[in-house]
Design a protein that fits this description.
homodimer; DNA-binding; 79% helix; mainly alpha; 13 helices
Chain lengths: 210, 210
DNA sequence: GTCTATAGGGGGATAGAC
DNA sequence: GTCTATCCCCCTATAGAC
């Protein structure tokens, strides 16, 4: 269902062209403000053809959403269950992966969060996120650290929330942060790169004092 | 321009009823998905009357947006410039104020962030946020701590970003976090309350190791 | 100020030719 | 598979009566 990036780029089928265009427009404008006409135009085809392939705007949207969330989760899942790396290294990898991902696709976070907020059902139809997290090597390692007293005992939810907040929110709130700090786009991206190394340290420091 | 809450609640004028309804619908659905018919219905008046008072959907939206952002910023501004409290106390107050605010109005953060992302111009037309922050007592205190070596030297932007991330993101990503951690709505709100006290500690711990 | 009625346009979806 | 033409609903905005 979800093809590899290489295949997608080589695949010049009409269906793929429409999906690429749809992805671009949906991510930029959100579901409600998107016009199927714009998607068609972006794909270099006709409106009728869009409906021929995907039946409706809604169906096309759900497909794009599913694929986007899947790639979103997958980035995490791979790292979470790596047996060879330690907890701190995993935090570093997660931060690094997501920061690279969002740097290339800056609209993904706000898009996913917003649509999810409007329609939480979209979440349930996807993946067993809950099991994915609690059965992970990552979580087991976290618990070990707590048992050893290296991480102060507390709600594990806070660990997850804090880590993801530090990684994702700077992208979600970028317009405000850029304005307040008077940072240009290029500088801001540099800052995000620096944060790859800082976030693991911060997470570590925080968790000692929960 | 922006009236006090007490006045708003007592003010039963048609104009105010429309604004209240508009606020509710816009916050819930976002600009694009909002129908002026729904606003009118919610206010118990007719569609024509809405345009009589506010000229257009867009004008009404801009007004609501402006007021929302204003109250958003004001919450911060008051604390930032308090001469009597120390830096750590300020972080505590900011966290506490925002968590209470978002608990009452859970749609505000994602709404503001999303609309701002779609149309960053909305930001520029508001307030001199930049000056507000850098000329604040808060920022001066931050610099003093850095000079004293109590906060490790680093980009001040990170201080702001991290604090706001820990405060706001849990509300923005609530659907996902609830799902992953298997938390019910009431429990999640409890968690947010607990975070009022935890966030200042975390911020402090982080800033020692920038 | 408030209403009813309607203009006017936009957008999603389909029929039907090629 | 792909196009043109068109349907039809929905939504914003306004005209005009009260």
């Amino acid at each position: 269902m979800v093809k590899k990036r290489e295949n997608m780029l080589l695949d010049n089928s009409t269906e793929e062209k429409i999906k690429e265009s749809a992805r671009k427009v949906f991510l930029k404008k959100g579901y409600a403000a998107t016009r199927t006409r714009d998607i068609a135009e972006g794909a270099g085809i006709n409106l009728a053809l869009l409906n021929y392939y995907f039946r409706s705007k809604e169906k096309l949207f759900e497909l794009i959403m599913l694929e986007t969330m899947f790639s979103f989760m997958q980035k995490m899942a791979v790292v979470l269950n790596d047996e060879d790396s330690k907890l701190e290294k995993k935090v570093e990898l997660i931060a690094s992966n997501y920061i690279d991902f969002f740097t290339e696709e800056p609209n993904v976070p706000i898009f996913v969060l917003n649509e999810m907020h409007k329609n939480p059902r979209l979440l349930f139809d996807t993946l067993p996120v809950r099991e994915l997290f609690f059965n992970s090597v990552f979580f087991r390692q976290y618990q070990t650290q707590v048992a050893k007293g290296k991480i102060k005992e507390g709600n594990p939810a806070n660990f997850l929330i804090n880590m993801m907040s530090l990684i994702i929110f700077p992208f979600v709130g970028s317009p405000i942060f850029k304005l307040i700090t008077g940072t240009l786009d290029a500088q801001y991206l540099e800052l995000m790169q620096e944060r790859k190394k800082l976030i693991p340290r911060w997470v570590k420091a925080m968790m000692k004092s929960m």
